[in-house]
Design brief:
alpha+beta, Alpha-Beta Plaits, four-stranded antiparallel sheet, elongated
Length: 295
């Protein structure tokens, strides 16, 4: 019975993983084929190299992406682990197939290059972020980005991606003698970095309330019962009269903060509430996104 439950759990996890890989790959394929390629400006990563090969030699973008990925994949295998490697290979194949066969079924945008750059950055950023949140990648430069992330975990994926792709954009712009293309490529690259960081690290973002009160236990109990959030009581003393106070610390999501604030004020109208932004919140009740780590 226990073995059956374990197998069912693994099957469910795999299904969820595959679902988000497919959704992310659709966004990436649409961004590359339906916007970037038709607008003819340099793209980032191995996709940018593949577009260069496509425009010079008519080599299918998906096929060249796979061929470029193979040597880099094996180089990063030992650093990133077997599970990450296998899921990335699967995702690389899916996204490449979507670029060559699914994206052509969608309408192709042939309007302003600036709007095409904006759509490419947003679509691609969302797609890559959805895949990164599953601790996977589309291979290619993603392997290099994840390898750097594993070695330098304090760096954000957006910043690593931005720096790694600047050279490819410059090469593409120079080869095609397209200065405007370089500018648009930089816009795409910048949007990639912003969207990836916002989608990924926004998942772990939240707010922190610091509630200065003389009724710490009552405030904690009220928040626990109405908001279902844990709290921490910190001893404090006023700076002017040196009166003893308590500071109730509560981390929650942005949506929950209004309820926490109202609960605190209803419990102790004389309380002093400070609300701060929190870039990431990890621990019980909060999801932690892991990327570039062996599972």
């Amino acid at each position: 019975m226990k073995q059956t439950n374990t197998m069912n759990l693994k099957a469910k996890e795999f299904a969820i993983q595959l679902f988000w890989e497919i959704i992310g790959s659709i966004f990436i394929a649409a961004g590359i084929y339906n916007f970037a390629d038709q607008a003819e400006f340099p793209m980032t990563g191995f996709s940018g190299i593949s577009i260069i090969l496509y425009r010079f030699f008519q080599i299918p973008i998906g096929l060249s992406t796979i061929l470029l990925n193979v040597p880099v994949a094996f180089l990063c295998y030992r650093l990133l682990g077997k599970n990450f490697f296998l899921s990335s290979i699967r995702c690389m194949i899916v996204s490449s197939i979507f670029i060559d066969y699914l994206a052509p079924l969608f309408p192709v945008y042939k309007g302003s290059r600036l709007l095409a750059a904006l759509c490419t950055g947003i679509f691609g950023g969302i797609g890559y972020a959805l895949i990164y949140t599953r601790n996977s990648s589309t291979g290619g430069s993603d392997f290099i980005i994840m390898a750097v992330k594993a070695l330098k975990p304090h760096l954000s994926l957006g910043n690593i991606s931005f720096l790694s792709d600047v050279g490819i954009i410059l090469i593409g712009g120079i080869l095609f003698r397209d200065v405007d293309g370089i500018i648009y490529g930089m816009i795409v690259n910048y949007l990639f970095a912003i969207v990836v960081d916002q989608v990924m690290y926004g998942i772990n973002a939240g707010k922190v309330a610091l509630i200065v009160t003389t009724h710490g236990k009552a405030v904690c109990d009220a928040i626990a019962s109405t908001c279902n959030r844990g709290t921490t009581i910190l001893p404090a003393r006023g700076g002017y009269k040196e009166e003893r106070r308590q500071v109730v610390l509560c981390a929650c999501s942005t949506k929950e903060m209004y309820k926490v604030q109202q609960t605190a004020k209803e419990t102790d109208p004389a309380s002093f509430v400070i609300i701060m932004e929190s870039n990431e919140v990890h621990g019980e009740g909060f999801r932690m996104t892991k990327v570039g780590e062996a599972r």
